[in-house]
Amino acid sequence: MGPKSRSGFYLSRALALLLALLLGALLLALAVLAALYSRSLQEAATAAGGARDTGGSSAAPPTPASTQDAPAGSTAGGSTERPGIWSRLRLPPSPVPEHYELELWPRLEPDAEGNFLFSGQVNITLRCGPEERGSVLLLHSLELNITRAALLELQGESRGPELGIERRWLSATHHYLVLELQEPLRPGQRYRLQLDYRGHLSQALLGLFVSRYTDQGQEKIIVASQLEPTYARSVFPCFDEPAMKATFDTRIVHPPNYVALSNMPAISLSEREDDNGTKWSVTTFNTTLKMSTYITAFVVCDFDYVNTTDERGREIRIWARKQVIQNGSVDFALNITGPILIFMEDLLNVSYPLQKTDLIALPDFGAGAMENWGLMTFQEYSLVSDTLDKRIIMKTIISLIVSHELGHQWFGNLVTMEWWNDLWLNEGFASYMEYIGASFINPKLELNQLFLLSRLQSMFTRDGRISPRTVSVKKEDIILTNHIIPLFDVTTYSKGASFIRMVASFMTEKLFTKGLSSYLKAFAFSNVDQENLWSQLQMVLDKQDEVQLPMSIQKIMDSWTWQKGIPLLTLNTSTGTITEEQFYEDSEDKDVFHDNHTWIVPISWIKNGYKQPLIWLDNRSKVFPEMQLFSEHEWIILNVNVTGYYRTNYDQQNWERIIQQLEKDPKTIPVVNRVQLIEDAFAMAQAGYLEIETALGLTKYLAKEEEIIVWNAIYRNSPYTIGTSAYYTALPLLKKYMLRRTAPIYHYYESIIRDNFEETEDDYFAQMALGDLISTACSFGLQECLHLARDLFSMWMSDPKNNEIPSSIRKSIYCYGIAMGSEKEWDFAWARYNSSSADDFSDNLCYGLSCTKEPWLLNRYLEYALQLPLFFARDIFENVLHNEIGRHIAWEFVTTHWEQINVAFEHYASLYNLVISAMGARATTEFQVQEIELFINTTMDGENKLSAMEVLHYARNETSTHWINKVNSKIHDWLRKNTDVADF
């Protein structure tokens, strides 16, 4: 039987084949006719003299669409199917740019169609290689209307003869401006390419973009740039590859009441009058260092700045909205920038090459921040701090982001990856340096703990899945420009930084830093691939005998940068054998996705609390006699301070001894390892590598745990073992078990909260974890916690201005203050929610309102949601669904009021999908699943039904329900055995 047609008729296999052949012949004929038509257009355009358009620019640039839509071969541009060197993603190696003379003239008033336009001129000095014979010149241009093009031969620095341009056009696939020349370029010769062009200012925060903002009650406009990775070509025609470095002379034409900024200091300010008699200012900037196009930067704004001079005489300015400057909200960023810059300069023993550095806080910016040399751009929240907020959290975030961008001044700007496949050499190093800089600014930020929380743990989780990617990417895998953007992901940043940290650990910080200095000096103002990094580090290693590696550092690191996933090391302390395998989120996947890859693993370890010499695992399995244990009091921990990128497992004997040691004296095990023991154990238990009882055993000592960062790990892992996973049968036991262990650390912090909360202001980890500590203690029914929430909420109600709840615990206090209260507390919070404009207040209140235990209040909350825009309604439904009672209320509400919801919201399916996902993830019986499916079939049709079914399927697959059901009885039995009579 053949394929069924849409009309219901059936086609035989022979007839289907015949029709396919006829269709193919028809398409081929159409293609031939299209090609002949395109050629006739080219010939007509050439005959009309279109290839030698030398028209100049005007004050009112037309839309650049004409460039892209014109026929191939026309003066305006177009596209062609004719194969050639423009069919490749990469530019040919010659000619190369040496210098750009660039003028940008953005118009800050929209045209009749609401478009913001700009015009530009660029003169590019080119140098041909020794083998040059080509008669085609390629460079990048995207959505620019080229109005004039001329190519001049240079005789020294003087202008020589002009080369004829036979044809110019745009190849859209790789964003090329193609100049077909009347004669070939000469080997070793220098040329000057002159281009006039026009374009649109983007309103998508990419390229040269325009955005509106409010400052001191007035709406204003700003023009700024974001050119990484490939948007410089949308601002000026250029050789837009990181290895095509050149110097730049820039001038910007702008309204006289605006200031223009670029990479270098301004050296002159002049005046220009356009054809309409309007006067403009022209700011000219000093010549840049040799650099890549993607870090050129341009801003036209009506901002103010604060400035300082660092200890080495360099000016640092922070630009922002005038209101922000007046509030002193960038003073913290100003105070830390110079010290971090000097610290990194001294650490790397490589001078920072600029004499001025601008940091600018943009109200709208797609990237969090961008490292442009001399003019770093930041999303406003990344640079601006609330002067009234004394918490360390915001200052730490600013320190991290500023340090990241300053790290780029060496790793990315001074030494740049040769191509985007090695992006981690830029972003991985900057991500590593951000923790170095932030811990320098605040020594209380313990680097290992901060790195573990911010980078490692999320990456470990991600790499346990079956579809991770490698840090390094093969050049040939990047086929199109749009393959570059996905490389800016957590693998490049976090895994790249983790590998660098691992190298620094096994080389020692001293030798590693010496190697980095050599690397930066050897390749300054140039480009590298990862082999260049390894060779410089190897040179340092070869000149000493303190650190000995089992093989070259390149061979070691190639086993990491070219491999997906994360290894799991398992130590058998009876035999001293360590084996490695790839860790999978589901251990059954290892049989399906079997990989014989061998990571060459540096293993730091402690035995009985004492650090041991580093060892190397260079096979899938290897015996280390020194790791055999003979005494019942001996124990081993691998991966000290988690500097290696791997998870660790042990034989049951060693696990039991680690558990005993934690109960005896947890401080003999480093804090970071105590965190990772819990992370690894519960991840392995869920994946099927370890029994859940062993993971639970690691919690027995917690009454002695004083480090809140470790408790943070307990909170993150609790959904798999306690509360939501144990369901109702184990919950009473769980509460009693955990209350006894949570009480000591809770009471310690409660006394601080009640007596002097400011004691926690400079404790980053406490600020991050206190809200979870309160939520956990209150959820387990600790009466002192519930009383604290009630008291703080009541005080806030009595005097909201003077008794404001600290922001780090606001969410949990709102929740349990409302849960402990009545309609009075709920109505007060609802009124505050409706009058609040601050996201922090409104988001936390939205959550807190969902914590009430009164079903009728939850139902009323959902009724109120129907009167709000869908965005806010979704937030309310999502929060109610997290409430154990609220989940059932929300499901009943949706199934009862679905017709009303359909009327209230145009895109109601997104709200349904939210509810279906939450209910599907918690469904424990087939009847519950069938109930959800019945609702979908009853209320939806077409694509909405298909989408909802996919959401339900995904929720069922992603939830740990299967695992929970399998181990629930084990959890219950373990808790019963390990809950003391004193706990009841």
Structural features, described:
The protein is an alpha+beta fold and 984 residues long. It contains 30 helices and 29 strands. The chain has an eight-stranded mixed β-sheet. The radius of gyration is 32 Å and the shape is globular.
Total DSSP helices: 30
Count of individual beta strands: 29
Largest sheet: 8 strands, mixed
Question: Which class of secondary structure composition applies to the elements?
Answer: alpha+beta
User: How far apart, in Å, are the first and last alpha carbons?
Assistant: 70 Å
Instruction: Write down the overall mean pLDDT.
Output: 88
| Poorly predicted residue ranges | 1-80, 719-726
What is the share of helical residues? Answer: 40-55%
Q: Report the C-alpha radius of gyration, rounded.
A: 32 Å
For the biggest β-sheet, the strand order reads 5-4-8-2-1-11-14-13
Global shape: globular
Strand percentage, roughly? 15-25%
Compact description:
With 984 residues, this protein is α+β, with helices and mostly antiparallel strands. It has 30 helices and 29 strands. Strand 6 (165-171) and strand 7 form a beta hairpin.
Topology:
Elements: H1 13-47, H2 65-69, E1 96-106, E2 117-127, E3 136-140, E4 144-155, E5 158-163, E6 165-171, E7 176-181, E8 190-200, E9 207-215, E10 218-226, E11 247-254, E12 259-262, E13 266-273, E14 279-285, E15 298-301, E16 304-309, E17 315-320, H3 322-326, H4 331-348, E18 356-362, E19 369-370, E20 375-379, H5 392-408, E21 415-417, H6 424-441, H7 447-463, H8 490-507, H9 509-522, E22 526-528, H10 530-542, H11 553-561, E23 567-572, E24 577-582, H12 589-592, E25 601-607, E26 610-617, E27 621-623, E28 636-638, E29 647-650, H13 652-664, H14 671-687, H15 692-697, H16 708-721, H17 727-755, H18 764-779, H19 783-798, H20 807-819, H21 823-835, H22 839-849, H23 855-865, H24 870-882, H25 884-896, H26 898-904, H27 908-922, H28 926-939, H29 942-958, H30 961-978
Parallel strand pairs: 1-11, 17-18, 18-20, 21-22, 23-29
Antiparallel strand pairs: 1-2, 2-8, 3-7, 4-5, 4-8, 6-7, 9-10, 10-15, 11-14, 12-15, 13-14, 16-17, 19-20, 23-24, 24-27, 25-26, 25-28
